[in-house]
């Protein structure tokens, strides 16, 4: 029993402590793939009040989703589908980020 308590105590101290999430800069938005890869997209140079600035933001988000879900070795149709699903999920995440960015 003592050995179990000793191992439990050692495991508790060996476990990594949770770290707070890093704050995202106000002039950045993120595109995150389901597998966890994230790309930061700068919006600092865009006038988001204009239609042209919003189109440029959409283009940047689409390109980031393409890059974050880039499967370089597409060997068959199922991998091609997986890449498409990854991009769709990344764009869905990006659309919520886009709404928050435009609200600021």
A few lines on this structure:
The chain is mainly alpha-helical and 104 residues long.
Shape: elongated
Structural class: mainly alpha
Strand arrangement across the biggest beta sheet: 1-2
Helix and strand pattern:
HEEHH
Number of strands: 2
The largest sheet, given as strand count, sense and whether it forms a barrel, is: 2 strands, antiparallel
Summed over residues and divided by their number, the pLDDT gives a mean of: 76
Q: Compute the gyration radius: what is it? A: 20 Å
How large is the share of residues in beta strands?
Answer: 5-15%
N- to C-terminal distance: 57 Å
- Note the quaternary state here: single chain
- Counted by DSSP, the helix tally is 3
Helix content: 55-70%
Q: Can you describe this structure?
A:
Helices cover 56% and strands 10% of the residues. It has helices at residues 2-14, 51-68, 77-103, and strands at residues 28-32, 38-42. A two-stranded antiparallel sheet has the order 1-2. The chain is elongated, with a radius of gyration of 20 Å. Mean pLDDT is 76; it is low at 1-22.
Task: Please render the helix and strand layout as text.
Layout: H1 2-14, E1 28-32, E2 38-42, H2 51-68, H3 77-103
Antiparallel strand pairs: 1-2
Any key phrases for this structure?
disordered N terminus, 104 residues
């Amino acid at each position: 029993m003592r050995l179990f308590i000793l191992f439990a105590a050692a495991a508790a101290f060996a476990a990594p402590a949770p770290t707070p999430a890093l704050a995202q800069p106000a002039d950045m938005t993120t595109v995150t793939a389901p597998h966890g890869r994230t790309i930061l997209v700068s919006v600092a140079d865009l006038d988001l009040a204009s239609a042209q600035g919003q189109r440029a933001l959409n283009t940047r988000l689409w390109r980031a989703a393409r890059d974050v879900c880039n499967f370089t070795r597409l060997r068959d149709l199922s991998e091609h589908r997986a890449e498409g699903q990854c991009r769709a999920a990344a764009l869905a995440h990006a659309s919520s980020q886009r709404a928050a960015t435009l609200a600021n």
